[in-house]
Amino acid sequence: MPSSSPSTTAPTTNRMISGPAETSPHAYDVGLLILRLVLGLTMAAHGSQKLFGWFGGGGIEGTGKFFTASGYPAGNAMAVVAGLTEGMGGLALAIGLLTPLAGAAVLGTMINAIAVTWGGGFFAPQGDEYPVLIAAGAAALALTGPGRYAVDRFLPVVRAHRLAYGAAAVVVGLATAGLTLLIRT
Q1: CA–CA separation, 54 and 77 (whole Å)
Q2: Dist. CA 139–CA 116, nearest whole Å
Q3: Measured distance CA(89)–CA(179) in Å, rounded
Q4: Minimal CA–CA distance to 141: which of 179, 169, 172?
Q5: How does DSSP classify residue 70?
Q6: Which CA distances in Å does 161 have to 38, 43, 96?
Q7: Model pTM?
Q8: What is the pLDDT of residues 79-113, one digit of tens each?
Q9: Tell me: the pLDDT tens digits for 124-163?
Q10: What is the pLDDT of residue 38?
């Protein structure tokens, strides 16, 4: 005999939702796109300061003198390396190209920036909050991947981002930063 209880016969138009509400995957992708664009273009501008003297930068010669004064050997060569790492890494982050490696490049550069400026406190004007924030954002992008709106979506190897790719890239960025710091006197 069929039951006449409302729970089995009445339509369930006003169901209680249990668990977290669903979020559009596009929301995450747009958020990652904004983060990539702002962080990447900021780093590309910093790289152009070092390489070309744009935006009030010192160019290779001025930046090279800074690197030499900071204890790095071959200051001009280090200026080129830092400028290319920031510029190319930043542009790659902005368009989402080889995102784990681009994030690792920016992360390694920012770790060196933090090491050079450490001791001025955390907050501006001599603080390290800016390079810490950039380093954390770069590491986060390396670990999460670029999202749907990126060049990586068209590359077979990195189309499906894996945490292992990001973690390996972060390790490479940390190791490279450590090795670069070891040559600093």
Answers
A1: 18
A2: 20
A3: 19
A4: 169
A5: T
A6: 21, 23, 12
A7: 0.83
A8: 999 999 999 999 999 999 999 999 999 999 999 99
A9: 777 889 999 999 999 999 999 999 999 999 988 777 778 8
A10: 98
3-state DSSP assignment of residue 113: helix
CA distance 85 to 100: 14
Question: What are the tens digits of pLDDT across the range 7-22?
Answer: 444 444 555 555 566 7
Six-digit token pair at 87?
A: 């510029």
Provide the sign of the torsion angle of the four alpha carbons 140, 142, 143, 146, taken in this order. positive
Nearest alpha carbon to residue 99 among 180, 177, 25, 33: 33
The reply to whether omega before 125 is within 30° of 0 (cis) is yes
Name the nearest CA neighbour of 114 among 122, 125, 105. Answer: 122
**Residue 176: CB atoms within 10 Å:** 18
42 neighbors 135 (Cβ within 8 angstroms): no
Close Cβ partners of 113 (under 8 Å, ≥ 6 residues apart): 131
Both tokens assigned to 43: 């780093």
- 52-84 burial, b at 16+ Cβ within 10 Å, e below that, comes to eeeeebebbeebbebbeebebeebeebbbbbbe
CB-CB contact of 72 with 60 (8 Å): no
